[in-house]
Amino acid sequence: MRRLNAEADRKLAVEYEKNAIIVKVDTNEEHQFAQDMHVRGLPTLFFISPDPNKEAIRNERLIPIQMICDILDNEM
Fold first, then answer.
1. Which architecture, in CATH terms, is 6-74?
2. Is Electron transport tagged as a keyword (predicted)?
């Protein structure tokens, strides 16, 4: 089971470049942003659809890359 890391981040960004924007935020440097988004633990993943009628999906734990792909493919 592959987990998210720097290499996986890059692969997902390339694989989904037409369908998603993948952003990694350093919460130590972007403390106010982390507070505004109520980030309490790492990793915290947000999946925000371009469709304003769909609610954002928030995940506050490590999840397999396949689960990330499934969310991007099926929920966005």
1. 3-Layer(aba) Sandwich (3.40)
2. yes
With 0-12 / 13-18 / 19 or more C-beta atoms within 10 angstroms meaning exposed / middle / buried, residue 10 is exposed
Q: 4-29 pLDDT, tens per residue?
A: 788 888 899 899 988 888 888 999 99
User: At residue 67, what is the residue type?
Assistant: M
DSSP state string for 21-52: ------TTT-HHHHHHTT--SS--EEE--SST
Q: Model-level pTM greater than 0.85?
A: no
Tokens of 18: 């037409």
Q: What token pair was written down for 2? A: 């592959």
